[in-house]
Amino acid sequence: MTLAQQRVVVIGGSSGIGLATARAAALQGAAVTIASSTRERLHAALTELPDGTGGEVLDVRDEAAVAALFDRVGELDHLVFTAGDAFRPRPLAELSLEDARAVLEVRFWGAVTAVKHAAPRIRAGGSVALTTGTVAQRPVPGAALAAAGAGAAEGLIRGLAAELAPIRVNAVRAGAVRTPLWDGIPEEQRAHLFEQLAARTLTRTVGEAEDLALAHIHLMQNRYVTGTVLTVDGGLLLA
Ligand SMILES: NC(=O)c1ccc[n+]([C@@H]2O[C@H](COP(=O)([O-])OP(=O)(O)OC[C@H]3O[C@@H](n4cnc5c(N)ncnc54)[C@H](OP(=O)(O)O)[C@@H]3O)[C@@H](O)[C@H]2O)c1
What we know:
42% of the residues lie in helices and 20% in strands. By secondary structure, the protein is an alpha/beta fold. It has a single domain (7-181, 209-231), classed as NAD(P)-binding Rossmann-like Domain (Rossmann fold), CATH 3.40.50. The longest helix is centred in the middle third of the chain and has 21 residues, at 144-164.
């Protein structure tokens, strides 16, 4: 099954894993719409994507805006959710409860909001896929809330797979992936960090956005996969 003629919405599609997924889906002939919160980032991404790709400015923390987006989109086949904001490790003791809740706002509650408004419009044979991370299984100090968010999203896809069936609901669980998410770290420090992260995997590499896009494409295409978390981490969890 290819994605030709399929309607795909990628929330978080202006960068990294989402942009690579949008590109891969468009190359298969899908009609793709990307959404993200920054107009400039969205427009820059659209210049890299095939003509005809749609773009919508959307902050997933705004439920009314999410509902309005899916009203405009109408029927779709696949929702891919890759939106996530950069995360700075901080121990719980240093977080106000408001800060702690905010860690889950885009990655978890944003995903809940998107699925709630997209699911009634997903056509037969369609799917939803979220993006989580190995932080849920291998947290480092300071990442407890990020781990909680990723773990919650993995529980969410199992619950929704049962609830929304026959719509399929899955997640891609990413290891360390070279994307603009890391751009807040100075270049030299980032290169050193990637070397360290690569050394902790079995493949001795960090991932590229395209590696994760392949997993998202698989979850859209494979009609027999639901309720699954597909790990793409170079073997980090085994190493
Ligand atoms: N890269 C990794 O190593 C890694 C590892 C494990 C898990 N992950 C997870 O994978 C997901 C994708 O990460 P990535 O590496 O592709 O990051 P990225 O390159 O920074 O892309 C994140 C995307 O999310 C969008 N976004 C951020 N806040 C948003 C909001 N409030 N509403 C709508 N869109 C929003 C961004 O666009 P705007 O700025 O325009 O909003 C951007 O398009 C994230 O959830 C991340 O936590 C990544």
